[in-house]
Amino acid sequence: MLIATINPKLNFLAGTVAGVAAVVVGFPFDTVKVRFQAAVANRAYRSTFHALLTILREERLSGLYRGVFAPIIGAAPLNGLVFSSYGWLTKVQLETERSIPTLTQVTLAGAGTGIICSLVTSPAELIKTQQQLMQAAAANATSPAGSLSAYDVTQRIFKQHGVKGLYRGITSTALRDIGYGTYFYAYEATVRYWPRSPSQRASNVTPWLATLAAGGLAGIAGWVVTFPFDVVKTRVQSTFSRSAENPYRNMRTTIVASYRTEGFPVFFRGLAPTLIRAIPVNMVTFTTFETIVHAFS
After folding, report:
1. In contact, 64 and 24? CB cutoff 8 Å
2. pLDDT tens, residue by residue, 239-275
3. CATH number of the domain to which 170 belongs
């Protein structure tokens, strides 16, 4: 991969465009995942396919894309930040600019990237989660739920809870996003060890099939490792109550309450739609990124 040797501005541009493509492809599966994970909604669906059909039947296609505006505004440039941060954190570990990073250095750069990006990810995820859950509540209610736009949800949270409220769930989000270490490790390892023809090795060209496969594997590896923290994050961000009666008032109480009431499998609830989403989304992400990088390098 060229991340360690190209212009950080190009990294950001390519990552942002790739982020837009990834959001459009993967957002419906993300909606299904959130509905599964949130305690108030998870008993309404028997399976991933049933959830998808139910949302389409009751809320139409717009239900699957409810809350997509916040990720496009936040996740697309965030994706640019991910790739540019990863490139910078990789470079600072190298002895010279021409050095090839080890897979350990790749993993450390990815983990550091996750911590940096959680500062942007956490508010965007909170707004998206609130929108998706409000949509679910509105679909089951006879009275209107009011505006569900990203702007109105953000304004409501800010008025009621201040800036601190926008960062509810930041700890679990940061722990989840450390998974970028596994994410980039899986991608780099797959690309490096992918079989190449003599001409491809001579020109240092990565086959498209390798990019697609590496992207899909990166998405799977990243989510499998960190998915429990994503479940915890969703539950913490589903409510703002900090009273002792609320089992989801912070990360620790959420983990304890979820385990006691629903057992260990609860921490992997919604993993199926997430993995189904991760494969095409990350194929699109890395392929788009590499295409733009090669076009402008």
Report:
1. no
2. 888 888 889 999 999 999 999 999 999 999 878 878 8
3. 1.50.40.10
